[in-house]
Automatic annotation (TrEMBL):
The gene is cheY_2. It comes from Clostridium vincentii. Keywords: Chemotaxis, Phosphoprotein. The lineage of its organism: Bacteria, Bacillati, Bacillota, Clostridia, Eubacteriales. Residues 5-120 form the Response regulatory domain. This is Stage 0 sporulation protein A homolog. Transmembrane segments: none annotated. The keyword Phosphoprotein applies. The modification 4-aspartylphosphate is found at D55. One of its GO terms (biological process) is phosphorelay signal transduction system. It holds the Pfam family CheX. May play the central regulatory role in sporulation. It may be an element of the effector pathway responsible for the activation of sporulation genes in response to nutritional stress. Spo0A may act in concert with spo0H (a sigma factor) to control the expression of some genes that are critical to the sporulation process. The keyword Phosphoprotein applies.
Amino acid sequence: MKDVKILIVDDSPFQIAMLRDIITESGFDVVGEAKCLEEVIEEVSRLKPDLVTMDMTLPGTDGFECTRAIHKINKDIKVIIVSSMMDEELVRKAKKTHVCGYIQKPVDQEELSLLINRVMADEELYLELEGLYSNVFKEAVLNLFNRLTKTMPEITDESNDDIAIHSEGISIVMGITGKYSGRLILDMSFGTAKSLAAVLLKREPENNEELLNVMSEIANMFAGNACSMINKKNKLFGLRVAPPTTFHGESINISKAELENTYSANVKSQFGDLAINIGFKRGDGEWMSIM
């Protein structure tokens, strides 16, 4: 990552001194400071920072007005709110103002450093994800079967084509958020699901609701374990999984998600075949904060 030039915006000399020490000790370059809207406009135009830390309460203005002024000068400058105040309304307004993150005072050095690095992560980080995620998800699904059933399935029919998916009967879709957003789909027939669930429950599923619940939890463990493995390789990814959405029935088709990178494969197990499809795309992904 390139050297990051940071401008501190705060009306408190004490807070400026603290932030300067924290940011400098974290390896970033503090190029200046500003205490009001006029100084923000002047210093951003003069210093051309990569990122601005923004207090919310400033004389005659607020962090949102200052952020809008910054983006009129250069929309690519990143802004992180650093404020003693944090609530749902402020966070909602911050997102609408295209703030990149929100952290509450008193600031923890490690959290602020991670947030700055995550916000400023460049193409190199995405290429790192692109190069590792398919192998990690393969490892995760094999580990999951081994732990749950003491069996080892075979991975076949691997592909990187982004195509619509025709379900075999049950499709569990999970969103992935973090520095980059993505999607995971686990698909199988009812027969495969029943065979697998019977082993896990040590009895036949009582009804379809229980069957679908078991399959959803399998997808949740699969996605969560894989994302945890990726985060261990580089914590800047900050990947998280959203709750699963389950579709079931005949003639279910899932359209392409317009992902930039996709990986699909068939998981041949002794319980039947399962299809996996995972993909990611560039972009802002999840709005980053410490909440």
